[in-house]
């Protein structure tokens, strides 16, 4: 089988390896599509900082068809369409050290390959109406958005939600907010992307380039109260403004590290804000999300697709930051 591996910092190299064979409790999946996340870009740029041994097959998010099952596997069979779970060994409950050690494309080889072997508990059947490319976008970005909004954030209809940017997590969060009857406020530096967000149902939008004090604009949109919940994808560089824009007693789900900066914890205390770090989620949440996606007929937003042979170009496109939604590699 062909695969791409991180050969050195910043270097992807294609390799030819024997087809992996599933052992007890495992399944072999022919990968049809792989979706990229910023975490994949950061891993490629500096694998040593994450303690990753090289070479390493990158990427956590893949979808395809089961082609073989190992002894003891039940409920899964060749021909079934599945997606990988970000953490191969996190089925339910709180995140643990063991779950963290099972992340694909990091501690373990990922899915940027023609064929992979995964634990049976590390794959999830995908909604039948989705293409392979659409299904591949679910394991990280979609599940992260779902978990921040519902598992951690306890989102209720009518609540106001702040979404930072228009990457994969934020676009999924926008779609889920619309499904839940929540009021999504999206900030971006692109008027064109904000127009697309409004077309998708965003209740309010702010261009943070033309309105650098975007927290004040968000407060104005909410009548001075602030949003109930923020999906914070920027990190420490945007968190101070996010705290200002979030109401007293509100919630912030911290998932991103894109913008560097320093954090003053005092306003979090004074406003009684609950700040929760969120790192994707367990298989149970993935299955619940998939049921909602299937019931609503929701379709993920894909910005661009690349052929398997052009995987480095896909990484470059993600790094350029001009996308709206997801970038997917097709085989």
Can you put this structure into words, describing what you see?
The protein is α/β, with parallel strands linked by helices. The protein has 2 domains: 2-137 and 300-330, Medium-chain alcohol dehydrogenases, catalytic domain (Quinone Oxidoreductase, Chain A, domain 1, Alpha-Beta Complex); 142-277, Rossmann fold. Helices cover 31% and strands 27% of the residues. It has helices at residues 38-45, 97-100, 132-136, 138-152, 168-180, 191-199, 214-221, 236-245, 266-270, 283-296, 311-320; strands at 2-8, 11-16, 26-35, 61-69, 81-84, 115-119, 123-125, 160-164, 183-188, 204-207, 227-232, 246-254, 274-277, 302-307, 326-330. The strands form 3 sheets. Strands 3, 4, 5, 6, 7, 14 and 15 form a 7-stranded mixed β-sheet that branches. A 6-stranded parallel β-sheet has the order 10-9-8-11-12-13, sandwiched between helices. A hairpin with a 2-residue loop joins strand 1 (2-8) and strand 2. Helix 4 (138-152) crosses helix 5 and helix 7 (214-221) runs parallel beside helix 8 (236-245). It is globular.
Computed over alpha carbons, the radius of gyration is 20 Å
Shape annotation: globular
Detail the poorly predicted runs: none
Q: Count helical runs.
A: 11
Mean pLDDT: 96
| Name of the CATH architecture of the largest domain | Alpha-Beta Complex
At the first level of CATH, the class of the largest domain is Alpha Beta
* Tally of structural domains: 2
């Amino acid at each position: 089988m062909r695969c791409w591996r991180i050969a050195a910092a910043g270097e992807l190299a294609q390799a030819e390896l024997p087809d992996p064979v599933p052992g007890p409790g495992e399944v072999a999946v022919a990968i049809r599509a792989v979706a990229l996340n910023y975490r994949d870009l950061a891993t490629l740029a500096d694998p040593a900082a994450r303690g990753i041994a090289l070479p390493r097959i990158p990427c956590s998010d893949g979808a395809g068809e089961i082609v073989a099952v190992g002894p003891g596997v039940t409920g899964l069979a060749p021909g079934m369409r599945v997606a990988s779970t970000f953490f191969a060994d996190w089925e339910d409950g709180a995140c643990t050290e063991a779950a963290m050690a099972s992340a694909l494309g990091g501690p373990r080889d990922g899915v940027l390959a023609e064929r992979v072997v995964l634990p049976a508990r590390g794959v999830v059947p995908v909604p039948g109406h989705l293409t392979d490319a659409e299904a591949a976008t679910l394991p990280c970005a979609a599940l992260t958005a779902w978990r921040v909004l519902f598992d951690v954030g306890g989102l209720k209809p009518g609540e106001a939600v702040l979404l930072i940017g228009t990457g994969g997590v934020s676009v999924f969060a926008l779609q889920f907010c619309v499904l839940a009857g929540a009021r999504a406020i999206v900030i971006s530096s692109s008027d064109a992307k904000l127009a697309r967000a409004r077309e998708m149902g965003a209740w309010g939008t702010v261009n943070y380039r033309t309105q650098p004090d975007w927290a004040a604009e968000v407060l104005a949109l909410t009548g001075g109260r602030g949003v109930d919940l923020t999906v914070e994808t920027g990190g420490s560089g945007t968190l101070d403004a996010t705290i200002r824009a979030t109401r007293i007693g509100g919630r912030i789900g911290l998932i991103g590290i894109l913008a560097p900066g320093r954090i003053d914890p005092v306003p979090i205390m004074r406003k009684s804000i609950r700040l929760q770090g969120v790192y994707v989620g367990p298989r149970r949440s993935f299955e619940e999300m998939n049921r909602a996606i299937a019931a609503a007929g929701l379709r993920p937003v894909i910005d661009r697709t690349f052929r398997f042979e052009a995987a480095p170009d896909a990484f470059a496109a993600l790094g350029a930051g001009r996308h709206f939604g997801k970038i997917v590699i097709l085989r």
